[in-house]
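During the second half of the funding period, the structural biology subgroup turned its attention to how the target accommodates small molecules. The most pressing case was cytidine-5'-diphosphate, which had performed well in the primary screen but for which no bound structure existed. We therefore specified the complex as follows and requested a full 3D prediction, including the ligand pose.
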Amino acid sequence: MEIGKAETRRRKKGARDQEARAGITEMSARLTIAIDGPAGSGKSTVARRTAALLGYLYLDSGAMYRAVALKALERKIPIENEAALEALTRETRIELKSPTPEQETAGLKNRVFLDGREVTQEIRTAEVAQAASRLATIAGVREVLVAEQQRAGQGGGVVMEGRDIGTVVFPKAELKIFLEASAETRAQRRWKEHQEKGENFSLLEVLQEVRERDKRDRERRVSPLARAADAVLIDNTAMGIEETARLIVFLARERENKRDSAGAALERA
Ligand code: CDP
Ligand code: CDP
């Protein structure tokens, strides 16, 4: 996976702006923040807002599973052909970039390029979501994507969201969040998004889709969706996006300070 050069520049500039506002001259500790949770719990929206507030890079690992799933669907590779799907993942190039202002207004949280072709919209269908969750049960596919996620997030200053970020991708992340919301609320949120795109699914259909994917994600053998023992559980059923993001920023600031003081103590010793 490649992170656009502009994105890296934006991350550095974001950090500098933050520091200037806070009157900080020394670069403070830049954390790795892992956000995991089931479909529709608010991971993408909240992670993106948290990253913007902190001047961190936002990375959506689910977009990578979706992009490979789209390619597999287009090539009509059956889900049972694990070797072919692993090979396909290895030869796939995925880039994540910031959305254009128009895409942002349309509710898109990042731009996704599959082998150079923009697939930002195509990967957001219910069909691709289901295919991604099936693809995500294949160990070989996960191995390739996890390695890319680790490469993309190395060095910290990153908010990455998915299903196994705190457990497998970054088990040493300084801050881990497990985002929850009731299944009905999550389905309602997704249903609203479909309505806005002119897709007429019933609320019950969306609830079934979300439940089916949750079950598969939680019960799969490799890297199932699970709360890491040291993850902070935030149930945002009755919380807004801004409220949730600011709570995470609060927790991040606490951890940054802890890391700064630990570093200073080491220097004095
Ligand atoms: O990434 P994930 O599937 O966990 O969820 P999302 O795509 O970030 O959020 C699904 C929808 O719920 C989006 O339209 C968000 O704007 C909305 N949302 C909300 O209304 N309240 C929240 N506290 C979190 C998300
Ligand atoms: O946005 P939503 O929560 O609906 O899904 P997503 O984050 O885009 O992920 C799509 C599918 O990819 C999930 O249902 C998971 O099966 C899989 N996934 C995963 O297994 N591990 C991740 N780190 C991220 C996504």
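Two results from this model are relevant to the next phase. Residues 241-268 form the longest helix (28 residues). Confidence is low (pLDDT under 50) at residues 19-26.
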